[in-house]
Design goal:
alpha/beta, single chain, 7 strands, seven-stranded mixed β-sheet, globular
């Protein structure tokens, strides 16, 4: 009998106000529905999904499916790091062995990328997993963070700095996903 897969939580960071874009990117629709819903769909392979919201929280919450858990970040104006800290702290109080961290402003990153990351989960000790998607060798998102790394990532997540330094210092595995998407982080409408 095969042991059940360890629980993995999808963590979607969707709290930003999108100052450069002109509106919260969670609510942007570039033709296939709001980005927050596209990102939730990308995380469908996870055991549960937590969405961190902030700017226009009521409008974002209203369109989210009832199957996701919502966490409001009252400090979202201080930068993405506060959403990462809030999300990983909340997940740390659950039995999740790892988290797949996804940003809402990656319109060409879909479920296939997340599934590829999940396929690289360390089955021997999933809490030790540390990997991230790469696009033509360039590190990008989403990121798979095992539970044993939560505290270190939380400590370094300040302002708009997320886990980049921690991932580099701890040798995160790069999982090539350039055949599945471009991994572009879209900050302004002219980048669409």
């Amino acid at each position: 009998m095969t042991a059940p897969a360890p629980p993995v939580t999808g963590l979607l960071l969707a709290a930003g106000s999108g100052r450069r874009f002109g509106q919260p990117k969670a609510l942007v629709d570039s033709g296939s529905g709001p980005w927050v819903l596209r990102a939730v769909d990308a995380l469908a392979g996870c055991d549960r999904i937590v969405v961190v919201i902030g700017a226009e929280a009521d409008a974002v919450r209203e369109i989210l499916p009832p199957t996701v858990e919502v966490l409001v970040n009252p400090d979202h104006l201080t930068g993405m790091g506060s959403s990462l800290r809030a999300g990983l702290t909340a997940i740390g109080h659950t039995p999740a062995a790892a988290a797949v961290v996804m940003l809402v402003d990656l319109p060409d990153v879909g479920r296939a990328v997340v599934d590829r990351l999940l396929a690289h989960l360390d089955r021997t000790d999933p809490s030790r997993s540390l990997s991230r998607a790469a696009y033509q060798g360039r590190p990008g998102h989403p990121v798979l963070i095992g539970r044993e790394h939560f505290d270190g990532v939380i400590t370094g997540a300040v302002g708009d700095s997320g886990a980049r330094e921690y991932l580099g210092a701890h040798g995160a595995d790069l999982i090539e996903c350039g055949d599945l998407g471009g991994g572009r982080d879209v900050d302004r409408p002219d980048q669409l």
